[in-house]
Amino acid sequence: MSRFDGKVAIVTGAAGGIGEAYARALANEGAHVVVADIDADGGELVAGDIDGAFIRTDVGDPASVHHMAATTIEKFGGIDYLVNNAAILAGMRLSTLLLVEWAYYEHFMQVNMNGALLCTRACWASMKERGGGAIVNQSSSGAWMYAGYYGLAKVGINGLTQQLATELAHANIRINAIAPGPVETEGLRATVPNVLLEDQLSRIPLGRIGTPADLTGMVLFLLSDEARWITGQIFNVDGGQILRS
Fold first, then answer.
1. Catalytic positions, written as ranges
2. What is residue 191's predicted lDDT score, i.e. its pLDDT?
3. Is the Cβ–Cβ distance between 231 and 165 less than 8 Å?
4. In what helix (H) or strand (E) does residue 105 lie, and over which residues does it extend?
């Protein structure tokens, strides 16, 4: 048997990039996967390929997130796993905390930080009813270096992961985070100037950019029973970019 046979997993931002890799990896391990994304065309394509379900979802909108959870429960009977991967990256405005337009900053943080909390609030009760579950948040190595409001949002994701570990423990729900370094996706290439990316890569000990496939082993591990005594932790998967002691 595969590790996730009969289990139900929601992956937000799974219409492409890292989220798509997560969704495909979970489906390959037997899970029923919900592709939750604002991109209907890409989401339908991925869901069709993995025999999953697509639910159009704006993670920054409480009503949309409630619909995501309710539709998943109606279709599959409940929720076992949640991967909070959705975020604004492709085409994000490159500005500073001091100068970014406030309305854009609020929208950005609503999606990139509050979205993970909204999705967790919508899903945790179903996980509890099924005896427990696991959640993985998507952080970034940008949480430990200057990355403007993108980095600030990921610092928030780390704190959210740690705080919710205590609140969710009574329901037998574990929550951890993955912090990737630069990963080869369309979103990265559309956002990070080559000169900045080359500078980052020059300081990565393993000497290369990551791929979505480099991250799937960690997400599967953290969701599985192999990680049953791990919660509230942030795991760097970044080629050695960030060294913490």
1. 150
2. 75
3. yes
4. helix 102-109
